[in-house]
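Q: Sequence in, structure out?
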Amino acid sequence: MPTARPRRPAPAEPVADPAACREAALRLLERTRRTRADLARRLRAKGHVGAVVDEVLDRLAAVGLVDDVEYARAFLAGRWGRRAAGWTRLRLELRQRGVRDDDIAAARARFEAESGGADELATARRAVEQAAGRMRGLESRVRQRRLYGLLARRGFAPDTIRQALQLAEDDADPETDPTPR
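A: Exactly. Output:
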């Protein structure tokens, strides 16, 4: 069982040195991209004074080293193709990381412009297709209810869920298929 790395205790006295705070922030940014909220939390935990942290983060944001919109756009780009999730779930995950709603909206617009439009219905249908095989032997109503729950947990909107399930049902039912055989 891995042991937890011991945490360094916060300094007994608050650190009010902007240069030390900036260096600490840059060290954190060397490892990975971070949100402004995450950086602020980590810097305050290291004992840096709140006003100094805000000032340093404002300067880093001005030069583009801290950009929550870009962080959220990159998160969406990486997350969209991996595991099917709806906008509600993705927005929640970003909010948990400290990204504000207006930054999330801007990132979503930028992501959709870059990707040519992210189709939530197509993503929901893909999730249904992946899960439908495991539920093939179930009664139709039970299968529909379980698929609805799966999509709801993944953050798809109710209208999107209903459309995806209806399209999947139409694809699976040869009697409602309008193409002649």
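The chain has three domains: 18-62, 68-115, 120-172.
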